[in-house]
Each structure stands twice: as C-alpha cells, then as structure tokens.
Specification:
By secondary structure, this protein is an alpha+beta fold. It has eleven helices and ten strands. Strands 1-4-6-5 form a four-stranded antiparallel sheet, with helices on one face. A two-stranded antiparallel sheet has the order 2-3. The chain has a two-stranded antiparallel ribbon with strand order 7-8. β7 and β8 form a beta hairpin.
C-alpha cells in the first residue's frame, strides 16, 4: 500500500501531466507500458528479481550481501594475500589470471570508487564463475544505473559463508546524469575554491575518519551535481530544437542555475569536512549533442534522466534531510530536495507535451524506457572509508540498503502508476469523452 507521502508525490506528478487526480486508480491497470517487474535489490524483493544472467537459471535467488571496504593501499598488501590473485571477468567474458590492481593516482579523482561486492554462495555443483556474469555483478552491487561507467576489476574472491566476492569500480551518483554515447560523464575532483560556498556544519564532534568519509561522499555528490549542470544546459538546447513551450525552456534554464547552486553546496560541505578547498575539474562535453536532437531521443533521455532518476533523487534527498540532525546539512538538503522535485516535475511536463506533439514511434520508445525504469536509477555517493555511521547519518548520509528501499517504493508507488497514467491519457488525435455535468 503506497504511503501518504507517495500518494502526495504521485499527485504532484499527475498534476504536472495535466491529469489532476483522475488517474490515481490506474496503478494496477493495463496500458501501453508493461511492468518489467524488476527490483532494485531490496531485501524484501522476490527471488526472481535478483539480476542473474538469464543463461544461469539455477543461480541463487537471495539478495546480495554488500560489503564496503577500503581499497588496497599498495602492491604489498595484495602480494601478502589480502587481495590475492583472482580471475578478471573481461568484456568478452573470457577470464584471465591477473593480479587485482592496487589503488592508483586516478582513484584520487573520484574517491571511494572501489567496492568489494559479495554475492550469495552458488548452488551445489556450480562455481562462482558458472553462476555470476559481469552484468549480474554490476547490476546487483551498484547503482542499478546502466549508463554509469563501471567495471569488475577482479574476482571471484573467497568470502564468508562461501560467498563470491568481486572488486568493482565505478561512479554511482544520484540525480540527473550527463549521458554522452550511453555513458554518464563526471568531471574529476580538483582544488577549485570558487565552486564551494562557505558552510559551517558542526565538525567538532566528528572523529577524523568520519570527517574523511563525509568529505569523500560530498565530493562525489558535488561532481554529480556539477554534471547535472551540463545535462540541463543541453536540455535547454534540445527544447529549443523541438519547439518546446516557453515555460518549459524557462524551467530548464532555472534548473541549470539550481544545479550550480547544488554543486556549490556539496563542494562547500566537502571543503568543510576535508579542511581544504574542493571543486570540480574540467568536464568533457565533446559529442554531447551528437544523436540527441531527434524528438524521440530527447523524450527518452528526459524520461530516463528526469522522470525516473531525478524523481528518485528528490525522494532520497528528502529522506536524508529528515534523518539529518546537523542544522546546516538539514537546511541545505531541504532546499535541494524541493528543487530536485521541481526538476523531476518539469521532466514529466515535458513528456506530456512531447506525447501531445509526438507520434507512435516516440511513445513506443519511451515505453521501453519505463519498462526498464530500474536501470535508470542511481543511489548516490557511497564511501569505502571506515566511519561512525550514526554520525554520518546525522550529516546527510543514508546507508545504501535504505536508499534501495526508498528507490523501490518510489518506482512501484509513483513512477510506474504515473507512467500508466501518461500512456492512458487521450492522445492528440483521439476524441476526448464529453465532460460529465453534475
């Protein structure tokens, strides 16, 4: 049963679609959109929702065990057996014996990007390699966001209770990504003081490890928000290309300014926790307008990045706001959550307009995006550093299992019924029923 909060959120989306509350009852109705039935990894999910390779029908159906660990600091750690020799799963699924790579200079650009992910022990008679493929490992461990650049560095490694463990690498931001050629781009972190507003969260009660972990998280949040600036800048041009209404173009322009503010807030918090200036480096934008000016392409990106990813983002930030106890963090999250929700509603408004102006091809392609909605959701920045989790939560950090539960609920209670309502609404070339007079 949807919560009152989710019913209210669905009401906002339906209003953005121009449908009022007319279609609230469509949650379980048939429409052009089919329910993919995929979960985001919630512990309460049905066993069949665990993203195992389709070729492995006997794969275990238990939810994954997620363990975040500090990456190896030197080759000596690996040679000592801490991260032992293992099999790398390459892109063509051909394993080769290699040494798990150590942390290198490139990791400093996006801290905390390496993770140890442990999946349940395979069925009797099967090995880890027989049971899990690369796509399964990445989809189970990570954001669920297929467009983020992620990879399996090495594995399987032996884990507790015969689990299959892998070292993975990749970014997992939340919000509206900047996707170019199917991959979401982020700038590297740099010492750029102009991107950090002056904020003073209470750091006196934090130990050094927790401060470092919070700095890591907020750096990554800042990089994600910085990338969203580019995404909305491109969206403004896309709106102009297809002749979108002035209010939508204006909304996109305002969202671009909001994302600059969000990035500066995140880097301000990162600077406060780190004790030194932090900001973004250059962002690669080459090719950003290639193959993105077709009306159907634009509608698909808006559905994935705005209607789905950003609506979940707004809910995650609101939950972090409610859990936060630091007054500075709580206030900044409150403002950010409100603006992120406005951005998501703008995306639904655009899609409603695109459906009125578009053709069957556009609708069919957008339907496929919503069928795979779980692939377009990010769970936000994580950290691999040891820290006091209660104090992390007080400063705006939610555990990943809590984020998954929230994302699952928003997907089921808000995004899917809103998509059903969008597709069930009368099309431009269909006669609308006469209004009932009472």
């Amino acid at each position: 049963m949807p919560s009152s909060l989710h019913r209210q959120l669905l009401g906002h989306v339906l209003a953005a679609l121009g449908l009022g509350s007319t279609f609230v009852a469509l949650t379980g109705c048939d429409s052009d959109v089919t329910d993919a039935g995929n979960s985001l990894g919630d512990a309460a999910a049905e066993p069949s929702s665990t993203p195992i390779d389709a070729s492995q029908s006997d794969a275990p159906g238990k939810p994954p065990i997620i363990v975040i660990v500090t990456p190896p600091t030197s080759d000596a750690d690996i040679d000592a057996g801490r991260y032992c020799r293992a099999l790398v799963i390459s892109r063509d699924s051909t394993p080769e014996n290699v040494l798990c790579p150590s942390a290198d200079a490139g990791d400093a650009a996006i801290p905390g990007r390496r993770t140890r992910a442990c999946l349940p022990a395979p069925p009797r008679g099967q090995s880890c390699s027989d049971t899990y493929g690369e796509s399964c490992i990445l989809n189970t461990y990570s954001c669920g966001l297929a467009t983020y650049a992620q990879r399996v560095l090495c594995g399987p490694l032996s884990g507790p209770a015969d689990t299959c463990c892998y070292i993975t690498e990749g970014s997992c931001p939340v919000g509206r990504p900047f996707v170019v050629s199917g991959v979401a781009r982020l700038a590297p972190a740099a010492n750029e003081a102009t991107w950090a507003v002056s904020l003073q969260p209470d750091v006196a009660t934090l130990d050094g490890a927790t401060r470092a972990a919070l700095a890591e998280v907020w750096i990554r949040e800042g990089l994600a928000e910085h990338a969203s600036v580019a995404s909305f800048a491109r969206f403004v041009l896309q709106c102009l290309t297809v002749g979108a209404p002035a209010d939508i173009v204006q909304g996109a322009q305002q969202a671009c300014a909001d994302e600059i503010e969000h990035a500066r807030i995140a880097f301000g918090l990162a600077t406060a926790y780190a004790g030194h200036s932090v900001g973004p480096g250059p962002l690669a934008v080459a090719g950003a307008l290639d193959e993105t000016l077709d009306a159907a392409d634009i509608a698909c990106s808006v559905a994935a990045e705005g209607c789905i990813a950003e609506l979940v983002s707004a809910s995650l930030i609101a939950a972090a706001r409610d859990a936060a106890r630091d007054t500075v963090v709580k206030a900044t999250l409150a403002r950010t959550a409100e603006q992120e929700l406005a951005h998501a509603l703008l995306a639904w408004r655009y899609l409603a307009w695109a459906f009125r102006a578009g053709d069957t091809r556009l609708r069919d392609r957008v339907a496929r995006v919503f069928d795979r909605a779980h692939q377009h959701i990010g769970f936000g920045a994580q950290t691999s550093l040891p820290a006091d989790l209660d104090r992390m939560r007080a400063h705006g950090y939610l555990a990943v299992d809590e984020r998954r539960r929230i994302a699952n609920a928003v997907l089921a209670d808000v995004i899917r019924p809103a998509a059903h309502a969008l597709f069930a609404a009368p099309r431009r070339d269909e006669a609308r029923p006469a209004a009932r007079v009472t």
